[in-house]
Task: structure prediction
Amino acid sequence: MRHIAIVGSGPAGYYTAEAAQKAFGEDVRIDILDRLPTPFGLIRFGVAPDHQSIKKVARRYEKVALSDNVRFVGHVTVGEDIAISELMELYDAVVLATGAPHDRTLDLPGSDLAGVYGSASFVGWYNGHPDFADIDPPLDGRDVVVIGNGNVALDVARILSKTTQEFAGSDIARHALDALETAATRTITILGRRGPHQIAMTPKELGELGELENAAPSVDPSDLPPEAQDEGLEPGQRKSVALLRDFAACADGAGKGKTIMFDFFASPVELLGEERVEGVRVERTELDGEHRPRGTGETYDLPAQLVVTCIGYRSPRIEGVPYDEGAGRFANEDGRILPGLYCVGWARRGPTGTIGTNRPDGYELVDRIAQDIGAGAGKAGRAGLDALLEERGVEIVTFADWQKIDEAEMARAMKGAPREKFVRVEDMIAAHRGE
Ligand code: NAP
Result:
């Protein structure tokens, strides 16, 4: 029998479990550990609440979760309740599928002012993540600056722009919906340190900005390169740039209450304010021969009472696990970290790609694990884990427990919404205990 522990129950974790099931059939036992009582990681806490169709992929993970040789072990923190070295003693392979839930930080003067958030906390807030449910971002100002030109910047700008009606059918956390409903936001400026050709935004997500009820995107035509240069772009990027051209050409945003301004060639150099952020000092950039941004020395100030940085993520460190500081992920070679210790998904390659990218990642890793562990080394596996956790008084949350939480969340949903999430761990536990 082979025993595999997967740390993290997001897409990378479940695709790896699925691949291990397919590769080893009945000759494997897989435990998927998660710090929280709820499975699916990024699907629940990262994917935007108004992108419900993307969340449907969880049904596929549920099928894996409900099979006999896979077990969800929720509410167990690796590094606190159990050390990674102990897991490695108990299992033939330990796979870190932790994702990259920490923000890459913007180390600028003023970054620590009140009102400045990384996307992990801001997205966590509107998605009801227990760690961020209480951050209470200030929405009493007219001006928000969103830093970064990726899809997360688009998610944040869109969530800040939507009307309450546009959240119908979403699972946005109630506290966020209430706060957004009374927000004073009028202008959301998306800062990109490079130009329209260098955006990391995909056309579907960018196109959504053009369809908002009470907000209109705005692009300065002079930021756009000559149209003929779009020919050199790959097709997806060409579509995105075409959308920016439409936004630049369309001047009918005036009737809408909010504006989403794209400010290109604009690199933040300082966050301004005394205690609370009041603005962002921006330096105009130009591109060098390799399309990298270079400051021109020209600066200007933008007002901002809320700043959200959307500049990428890092994996959390785990004691005893080699870490690549520069890349912000575990040090690994094709997913191998140490004998018996692996990583997959964002924890392996950094925060890039779509949810589907994690599928081949998981399958390839299982091929390597198969080469390394043979038929298994007679390890204790889940029986050993259970004994250790019981000794330590750690009560796990099983998949059946999660299903009770799931039912309770669906039962308390607002009309038309798929669920109303519990945002506190103790409420999740109480829900599965039926308290
Ligand atoms: P991302 O795609 O890597 O974009 C990060 C952005 O931050 C880039 O525009 C980058 O600019 C900018 N940036 C980095 N450091 C900066 C700095 N110091 N100052 C100013 N700007 C800086 O990351 P993401 O938006 O966090 O998305 C992560 C992954 O999740 C991506 O693969 C994304 O496509 C995916 N995602 C997908 C969806 C969806 O499909 N609906 C939704 C959300 C996220 P440079 O290019 O100049 O470095």
In short: The chain has two domains: 2-101+314-397, 105-309. The chain is about 30% helix and 20% strand.
